[in-house]
Design goal:
This protein is mainly alpha-helical and about 220 residues long. It has eight helices and two strands, in the order αββααααααα. It folds into three domains: about 80 residues, no CATH class; about 35 residues, no CATH class; about 80 residues, no CATH class.
Length: about 220
């Protein structure tokens, strides 16, 4: 049986802003709405961006296929509109900057910086490497959110459907095995700021607008 192509999976992840179309959690895979063994195609219309928990809870239920497809399309619409560029805001920031320092000095500094970058970077990172790094950062963000939720559940402050929680616990174990607990926090405010900055920069390179984080 064939599988979704890597280019199609990346396109779908971008359209969904790397989040689950049902629960909006980060750390997703692209799944067949109609399973391959039932004749489901490898076309985009049969693909859904789902986190492990939602895939386990809804993916095997034939009665939920229409719901998954409708939720996916609705989420695509939201993702497409929510971070539309704002040219007026950009012009406002540029104007403030021009009145704060000499714009000629700024241009000179910028040219020096770009020249330095051009000479220092011999081989830019590939798109696959960038995507893998984004995936790693999103895995780590999801894991820390999971840990925070686990503390609230254990303290009796939150409740989650038992079946969904079982899937979340299994996913957490997978993340621990993949990266090692030492690489998964806990993080302070500075660490979170660094991760958000890295995600913002990398996702901009992949086509998102600035500050598209959903973390």
């Amino acid at each position: 049986m064939m599988a979704f192509s890597e280019s199609l999976k990346l396109e779908i992840k971008r359209k969904a802003h790397f989040t689950c179309c049902l629960c909006k959690a980060v750390g997703i895979e692209i799944h067949h709405i109609i399973p391959q063994e039932e004749g489901g195609s490898d076309a985009e219309d049969n693909a859904a961006p789902l986190c492990p928990s939602c895939h386990e809870t809804y993916g095997a239920n034939p009665q939920k296929r229409k719901f998954i497809r409708e939720a996916r399309d609705f989420w695509y619409e939201i993702c497409e509109k929510r971070y539309a560029s704002d040219s007026d805001r950009f012009d406002e920031i540029k104007g403030l900057l021009e009145h704060t320092v000499s714009y000629d000095d700024l241009q000179e500094l910028k040219e020096e910086l770009l020249l330095h970058i051009k000479h220092e970077i011999d081989s830019p990172r590939s798109e696959d490497e960038i995507v893998d790094t984004v995936g790693e950062l999103l895995d780590k963000v999801w894991y820390n959110r999971h840990k925070c939720l686990r503390e609230k559940i254990e303290a009796g402050e939150e409740t989650v459907d038992p079946e969904i929680w079982k899937g979340a616990l299994r996913s957490a174990k997978k993340v621990e095995r993949k990266y090692g607990k030492r690489e998964l926090g806990p993080w302070d405010d500075f660490d979170w700021g660094m991760i958000n900055g890295k995600l913002s920069a990398l996702r901009w390179v992949l086509g998102d607008e600035w500050d598209m984080l959903d973390t």
